Amino acid sequence: MLNCQIQAIPLSFPILVYGESPVNSDFSETRSAVPAWPAYLALLDNGELERRVAEAYARLEDCDLCARYCRVHRRQTLKGVVCRTGERAVVHGCCPHHGEENPLRGWAGSGTIFFTWCNLRCVFCQNWEISQQGEGQEITSEALARMMLDLQRHGCHNINLVTPSHVVPQILAATLLAARWGLRLPLVYNTGGYDSPEALALLDGVVDIYMPDMKFGDSTTAHRYSHVRNYWEANQAAVREMHRQVGDLTLDEHGLARRGLLVRHLVLPGDLANTETVLAFLAREISTDTYLNLMDQYHPCYKAGDYPLLAHPLAPEGYEQALRLAEEYGLRRLDQRQRWRESAESMPRMIGASRG
Ligand code: SF4
Predict the structure, then answer these.
(1) How many Å lie between the centroid of ligand 1 and the Cα of residue 246?
(2) Which ligand 1 atom sits closest to the C-alpha of 84?
(3) For residues 170 and 270, what is the distance between their CA atoms, to the nearest angstrom?
């Protein structure tokens, strides 16, 4: 049985558990009028979504689906597969998430699906049991599609795909099925930001809301603490492409995210994340209207205690400096959630996590 592990949240409805949908699972709903949004509906209509699924699965055979470029046949072996995921996605759980950014959580929650494993290896990962030890259950695309529809039936505002980079084919296949069965929520691609251009091309016109991390403003630091090469270069290229596809974040009349880019940056102790470099990039090369969640909730997790610079929480002045820099660079569209330390008791432990 796969639990969502958000029991700490005071929910007014049952926690969703894979294979035990608490709602009516009649997926016979048929589509009527075709709206222009969410974006994937247009690709469903013209057959392009089906073609993307086929191309994505073909890419599993010489994997270039993230910036690692393992080039392994993931349908045949897991040897050399950094993300340790083969033909089927592994999922830890799903739930309406009330701790995400305001435009995502709204009043009914962001319909969040937590994928197991990760293409990064952050030593400070908050979810290391899931991302690096593989807690979760292998599921079919049909089951993933049912999860999406269950979240929709609960009234969630979007489908929030957490750590999706290594499971793009499985996500596309599930989206195809779910859209045929009546899914009408926008997809949020909630990524560590180490995505390949090949994967992003597959997602063009499918994803409405990109939410990448920008973890480090230099690749040497990223290599030391996330065990990944050329993170900064790959991350900048990915964010440029995401912004090209969807633009700045737009909201509907209720303040809910409709389409666009939302960037997360976790300020690290001792300025290890090179915050000014990240902010300068966003302001100069993306847009000063970038919606930015500048996160202050760093606390040592997993192996962080082995690294002296990461072994203690972020000092308040470190975050204040980051806020000052954001203002200096003209980035004023900052997420206004209550700060982590004010509400940690009521939030699931995955919120704002580093996808290690
Ligand atoms: S998704 Fe990334 S980490 Fe996984 S096998 Fe492909 S290139 Fe490697």
Answers:
(1) 24
(2) 4
(3) 38
Ligand 1 site, residue 59, Cβ cutoff 6 A: no
Chain segment 220-263, per-residue pLDDT in tens: 999 999 999 999 999 999 999 999 999 999 999 999 999 999 99
Range with the poorest average pLDDT among 12-26, 81-95, 111-125: 12-26
Which range marks the domain in which residue 146 is found? Answer: 43-55+88-346
Assess whether the C-beta atom of 56 lies below 6 angstroms from ligand 1.
no
Answer whether residue 278 is part of any domain: yes
Read off the CATH number of the domain in which 247 is found.
3.20.20.70
Joined together, the tokens standing for residue 245 give 């596809």
Whether the CB of 89 sits within 6 Å of ligand 1: no
Ligand 1 atom 5: residue of nearest CA: 81
Does the pTM surpass 0.85? The reply is yes
Residue 245: what residue type? Q
Give the DSSP H or E segment for 263. strand 257-266
9 in a domain, yes or no? no
Neighbour-count burial for 112-124, b at 16+ CB within 10 Å, e otherwise:
bbbbbbbbbbbbb
- Ligand 1: which of 83, 131, 171, 228 to mutate, judged by most atoms within 8 Å of the beta carbon? 83
9 or 250, which is more confident:
250
The three-state secondary structure class of 160 is: strand
Strands (E), 69-109: 89-97
- Ligand 1 geometric centre to CA of 16 (Å): 28
Digit-coded pLDDT (tens) for 315-328: 999 999 999 999 99
With cut-offs at 50, 70 and 90, classify the pLDDT of residue 336: confident
- Among residues 217, 257, 262, which one has the least CA distance to residue 243? 262
Torsion angle of alpha carbons 255, 256, 260, 265, nearest 10°? Answer: 90
Task: Looking at the CA of residue 74, tell me the nearest atom of ligand 1.
Answer: 5
pLDDT tens digits, 280-292: 999 999 999 999 9
302 occurs within a structural domain: yes
